[in-house]
Structure formats: structure tokens, C-alpha cells
Amino acid sequence: MSLNISDLVNEDASLISRRCWSDEGVYVLEKTGIFGKSWLFLGHESQIRAPGDFVQAYMCETPIILSRGQDGGIYANINSCTHRGLPVCRADHGNTRRFVCPYHNWSYSVEGNLMTIPQESEVVRKPDKTQLGLKRVPRVESWRGMIFGSFDEAIIPLDQYLGDMRFYLDAFFDRFPAGIEFMGAPHRWVINANWKLPVENQLGDVNHGAFLHSAIIPKEAQDIIEQLGHSVVTTPGHGATFRLMPELSLIHI
Predict the structure, then answer these.
(1) Model's pTM, two decimal places?
(2) HSE (CB half, 13 Å, CA atoms) of 146?
């Protein structure tokens, strides 16, 4: 059954059908129309400092290997062997010279280039290995050390895409002279729910705390949150929640 967007969301998006949280067809549209056309966070440069460093990530449901090449460049490739499709990387993070498929031992460099094919010398028609490397994410850019990728080759530059959200990201990540560092393996939570539910809960529904968590958030703390707390949504749909703390008064004795 075809979906009519106007039946799901009104013109100013103030009313949204509950089908958007349960209809598989809506999710299919979101995978191509949202995740397929946006800049998606992959990792931080501190996770891949040295040549050969890598960390795994996801772009929607597509597994990605984010790596530092031997040339010092940043590479993002789909974690799927070009022969039979198996993952060639099975560790969350680490350092390596090669990614090897467990099925037929096709070997790839950390940049994603196909390096060796077992028994290639026995093949009559030699394959062109330059055309058989891991499929690369077409657009990869870094901002403040945060690395993003996009499947849309025509997407606007990352700096332009972030827009006013850069101000709020600076409030989080540009507070320290030496910058920030990601340490250890990535922490991931798997939630059995539509992807929009945790996003809305974190960015658009901070007011629920006083009611749902009143047993652990005393009224005095909630009053301070209401006084200092701010929730902002910038174009094209980025959001942030933070507290704007008052300036400290220094008293000299």
C-alpha cells in the first residue's frame, strides 16, 4: 500500500500519525529519505590516531569500518566483502594492516583496497582488484574532530549542514584547551523500539523528568532545571538540551 506523506504529518509537523512509529513502510521511506540523505556520525578522530587504527560504526543499518589509512587519511567503508558479502572486520576497534574475509580469505587494506585473492594465479581471467575494494562511503568530513559520513554524494558540506548547531556543539566539545578524547571501545545501547522514540525522549521531552522521575528528582532540583534549562531545535532539525549556568561571583577576602 502506497503512503501519502500528507496523511502522516501535517504541514507544520505539529500533528504526526501514530503510524510513523509502527508502520514498516514509513521506516523504509525513512531509511532512504532521512538516513540516506543526511550526515551521520561515525566516530571521533581520537579513536583512530595511528595508521591502521579502526573503529566500527553504523549508518542506519549498514555496518561501517572507520579507519586511519597508512597515508594518514580517514576512510569509511562498508563492512562487507565484495565477493560474498560477509563482514571482513569482526572487532569493535583495534589496529590492523589487513581486513580478511573469513569465507574465502579475500584480504583488504585498512583503506579498503582489495590486496589479495587466494589462488589468483590459477584464475584464467585475472580479476581487476582495483574495482573490487570495499564499497566506500561517498562523502566523509570531519568537524571539531567528529567524523561524519553520508551516502548522498550531492549533500551540502558538513559545516553548512550543521548550521547554527555548531554553536551548541562548541558549548559541549570546545570547552577544553586540549580538546576532547574518546577512550575505549564504543558504548552502544540496543533498544527494541522505533528509532524516533529515544531521539524524542532525549531532545524534545525533557519536561517529563518532574513527573516520571519525581522520586529521584526533588522539587528544588526541578526548579533549577526549569530556571536554567533550555531546549533548542535548529535547522535542519538538529536539537540540543543544556543548562545555561549563571556567572560565578568571585569574592576576595
Answers:
(1) 0.88
(2) 16
Provide the β-strand partners of residue 77.
65, 136
In a domain, 92, yes or no: yes
**Residue 142 is part of which domain span?**
40-173
For the segment 52-98, what is each residue's pLDDT rounded down to a tens digit?
999 999 999 999 999 999 999 999 999 999 999 999 999 999 999 99
Query: Pick from 112, 144, 173: which residue ends a domain?
Result: 173
In this structure, the answer to whether residues 168 and 44 fall within a common structural domain is: yes
Domain count, the chain: 3
Q: Are residues 209 and 101 in the same domain?
A: no
Amino acid 54: pLDDT: 98
Query: Distance (Å, rounded) from C-alpha 210 to C-alpha 216?
Result: 9
101 within 8 A of 86, measured Cβ to Cβ: yes
Per residue in 97-139, pLDDT tens? 999 999 999 999 999 999 999 998 888 888 999 999 999 999 9
**pLDDT (0 to 100) of residue 1:** 59
Q: Write b or e for each residue in 166-196: b if 16 or more Cβ atoms lie within 10 A of its Cβ, otherwise e.
A: bebeeeeeeeeeeeeebeeeeeeeeeeebeb
Residue 134 burial (10 A CB sphere; 0-12, 13-18, 19+): buried
C-alpha span between 104 and 27 (Å, rounded): 34
**Cell 523500539, residue?**
193
